Each structure stands twice: as C-alpha cells, then as structure tokens.
Amino acid sequence: MTHEFKKIIETSYQYFKQNKAAVLATVVHLEGSSYRKPGVRMLISEKGEMTGAVSGGCVEKEIYFQAATVFRTGKAKMMTYDGRYRLGCEGILYILIEPFFTDEAQFKKILSAINNRVIIKIYVTYTLDTETYSNELGSIFTLKDRNSISEASINGQSPILKMFIQELSPLFQLFIIGSEHDAVQLALIGSYMGWKVTLIASPKDPRNKSHFPGVESVKHLNPIDTKILEIDDNSAIVLMNHNYATDLNFLYNLAETNPLYIGLLGSVKRREKLINELIEVHSEKADRIIDKLYGPAGLDISAITPQEIANAIISEIIAVARNKAVNSLRNQSEKLVSR
Fold this sequence. Notes:
The protein has 339 residues and is of the alpha/beta class.
C-alpha cells in the first residue's frame, strides 16, 4: 500500500499548489468481506478527480457523492457502503471522509521518509456511528512510534471513538541483476506493482534508464560493488545475467545482504551447482542464503515467453512475501527448466 500512499501524497501536494480542495477517504472498518481491506485510501479533488481506489470501482461514486458535505462544511464524516444488497460483496465498508491537504513542508518530510525507507505509522480516529460528527475524526501520520497513543486511551476519552492503526512498510524493492531483453519485461511488470525497481548492468554496458521502462535507476556495477545497495528484508533479487560465472560471483557477494528472495534463472542442476560451489568457497555465506534461493525462479505455470516468465517470477515473489505455499519451480527437483 505504500506506493498508493506515495501517489496520494504527491497528488495532494499538487492540489495544494493549485489551491484546489480535496478530501481523503479511508476504509477504517469492515464487516464481512470486500474486494479491498481496511487501510486503503483514495484522494478526491473538489472537481471529482480521483487518485487511488477503495474497491474494484463500485464504491467510488458513492464516496464522491457523500464527500459533498465535507467540501461544504470542512468537517470529517463517516459513511457506510453495504455491498451485500448492491453487488454481492458480502460486506459493509465503514469509510472516513476528511478534508486533506499536503503543504510543502509535509510533502518533503513524507517523501524523505519514503525515500529513506522509514516506516510510516498512521493513526485514524473514527466511529461506527455515521450520525455522529466530531472534530476528533481524522488521520495522523507519524514517522516514529507514538506509544502515548493507543486505541484504549482514545476509547477511554470517548466511547463512540475508535482508532485504526496502520503501519506502512518501506516500498518493496526489486533488484534485477542482468540487462538482457528478458530483464526489460521483469522490470516493467515490477514497476506496475508499484515496486522500486533497480537494474544492475555491467560497467561495460552502455545502456541506461531509457532502455528499461519502469526502472527507477540503472546502476553499472561489478559483483563486489553490490555492498552499496540498500538491500533489506523488504527486497527481492533476480539474477538473470545468463552467465554462470557472473551469477556465482554476484551470489557470493550478495550473501552479505538480507533479501526476502533471490531468484535464479536456469535449471535445477544449475541452481545446485551454484549452491555447491558457494558452499565450497564459503559455507557460512551459503548457509545465510540457501533458503532464500528460488531456482528456477517463478511459479510452475508452464511459462514460455519473457512476459509469462516475468509474471511467474513476480507472482512467486508475492507468494513468498505473503508466506503463501505455492507450486514453485524450485520444488520440481526432477525437472530441468531452461531459461
């Protein structure tokens, strides 16, 4: 959700510079099931321009209709949307609509936090009573723990008020090591996910960012230079150099990092050979990353084209991040997969 929040803040700042009023709609509570869950947001300008979404498209028009009161009074309000009788979503959404703007100081502070991978915590005070209006309804964005605020303390002040607390992790990162044509497709789909995509090319490779749509940056690095990369547990790496020695060298240096996922192209035999050689060179480094290695990278969906292979890899990364058991190609121990 962090990339959606970033887009909302960027748009809100543009509205501020244009002196254009806007409201923020946040799903704070759900009874039953819905297409999206509490914590999703959308920004609506006074002219009806929408950034973000809180559903598959069925709720947004109703929110804009309800927002008229907020634009007129400048006060936050609650609304509900019962999907059980309208679209069969089987759930009731409770949505807070509040006046919202982002001035230059706020914009720079939040953008700096996102760029520096600082966790953003959001505290939203709301009520389930749509007939109640209160100046205490609204969102607070913080860049550090606020132990002084808790749901219990808020409820102790007013029995009608509740608090929704959300933690936005740093933007998910995808590091693509390799600059062949299949890297272009992986970078593009990764960018559609809202991920921060960095492509690592050889220092001898003349290509730049313009050759890889969707990437945030292209870095020309040797394997030993990967230490400059900020690879954390909210990051995935895909090695796709199509060169065994180069992949082995990168793998050796990446063993010092702590990514969520490392994807390898090629067959099961190639993966095992890489692991065995890494163990021979430095067993301790190998132990750190063996469980994170997924080779052949991707879900077993019989992918053939670069686009299909990229989709299989992106889907596997999502499954690993969600701790979801899936049919990964790396589990096909008897099967050789060449990519």
